[in-house]
Write a structure and sequence with these properties.
- There is one protein chain.
- The protein is of the alpha/beta class and about 325 residues long.
- It has one domain: Rossmann fold (3-Layer(aba) Sandwich), CATH 3.40.50.
- It has a seven-stranded parallel beta sheet, sandwiched between helices.
- α1 crosses α8, α4 runs parallel beside α6 and α7 runs parallel beside α9.
- The protein is globular and about 65 Å long.
- It starts with a strand and ends with a helix.
- The structure holds 2-amino-3-ketobutyric acid.
- The site of 2-amino-3-ketobutyric acid (AKB) has 10 residues, from loops.
């Protein structure tokens, strides 16, 4: 008998660590985690961890002989800034890695006669707004607006959303019998902010970097203009969104890809919040033209009405609660020693 597991790729990353943490407070699930890196020491023993590459197909062939994969949270990805420096590698990891897992999930769904749920974090990077006046006018974009990403990462995310829908609805469409398909579900996340981890390789990183630097009493030069506005979300809400979408009954879903958001802030407003908590913070603005261009192409806000209606999405942390109750106290404590 194969052991039933929930697979989490990219488990050593920011969302991965928060998701594993949430799962291990709820007994009853066996987690099979995969990452290029080892898990941090405090996570040891909580999961069956495989240190490996999502591009390694032999590894997956071995894993499916041992485990029945019930759900996949596919979090492994190269983020937007890093992907611009290594676009071909980004395509391999973000697209080919996802394709391998979708194929595996489709085959597993047929083998066990029940759809594997495939939960995929997409991003505001899937959007590409043409200019700042349009960004200000179409503030809260809907899922189908402005799907013209300008980054390799954004292109990868948008295409993988489509691949997920293909594998769920049209896979083997010319075969005589309709096979059991996988059940792909995706959330488009805004910039995420964790109190416990610092992001690397993203372009929304200026928010969390500013906050963590202030808590460490380090000066910070923000790489975008003060007026740059994008949506953000506290990490616990990101985990809630993934879990809520995972649990949602299939009949209640009207789309495969949902926007989710919490609050929109300009970099100047972000700085004000940080200064309110850490009055000594040394924050300056030193925009980087290329990274600025990426942030300018991302929407200022997300319209997440479909997620609210279909599966009851509500962020627990608005901007006030995010800073006062989650970010500032935990970050303070983290660097206190
Ligand atoms: C990035 O900046 O690349 C990510 C994202 C917005 O998806 N944080």
């Amino acid at each position: 008998m194969r052991k039933k597991v929930i697979m989490i790729t990219g488990a050593a990353g920011e969302i991965g660590q928060a998701l594993v943490d949430e799962f291990t407070h709820n007994d009853g699930y066996t987690l099979l985690t995969l990452d290029l890196h080892a898990l941090p020491a405090e996570m040891h023993g909580r999961t069956i961890h495989i240190q490996g590459d999502i591009l390694d197909k032999t590894l997956f062939s071995r894993l499916v002989t041992e485990y029945e994969i019930d759900t996949i949270f596919h979090l492994a990805a190269l983020l937007s800034t890093r992907s611009e420096f290594a676009p071909e590698l980004a395509h391999q990891v973000n697209v080919n890695g996802t394709l391998t897992l979708l194929q595996l999930a489709a085959e597993q769904s047929q083998r066990r006669g029940e759809a594997v749920r495939f939960i995929f974090p997409s991003s505001i990077a899937a959007y590409g707004l043409p200019d700042l006046p349009t960004k200000a006018r179409d503030f809260y974009v809907r899922e189908w607006d402005w799907n013209y990403p300008t980054t390799m990462y954004g292109c990868n995310k948008l295409y993988c959303e489509l691949l997920g829908a293909y594998y769920s609805e049209h896979f083997q469409q010319l075969a005589r019998t309709k096979p059991i398909m996988l059940d792909f579900r995706s959330v488009r996340f805004p910039g995420l902010i964790s109190a416990f981890t610092v992001p690397t390789g993203g372009t929304s990183d200026y928010g969390p970097e500013m906050l963590h630097a202030a808590a460490k009493s380090e000066p910070y030069a923000c790489f975008v203009r003060p007026d740059s506005t994008i949506p953000f979300m506290a990490m616990p809400d990101a985990v809630t969104a993934l879990l809520k979408l995972w649990h949602a009954p299939a009949e209640s879903l009207t789309r495969r890809v949902y926007n989710v958001t919490s609050f929109s802030l300009s970099a100047a407003e972000f700085q004000e919040r940080v200064r309110h908590a850490f009055p000594e913070a040394e924050i300056t603005f030193d925009p980087d033209v290329q990274r600025q261009g990426i942030v300018d192409s991302w929407p200022a806000g997300l319209n997440d009405k479909a997620a609210q209606t279909d599966w009851g999405w509500r962020p627990a942390y608005d901007v006030q609660r995010a800073f006062d109750e989650y970010l500032v106290p935990n970050i303070r404590q983290r660097y206190a020693g």
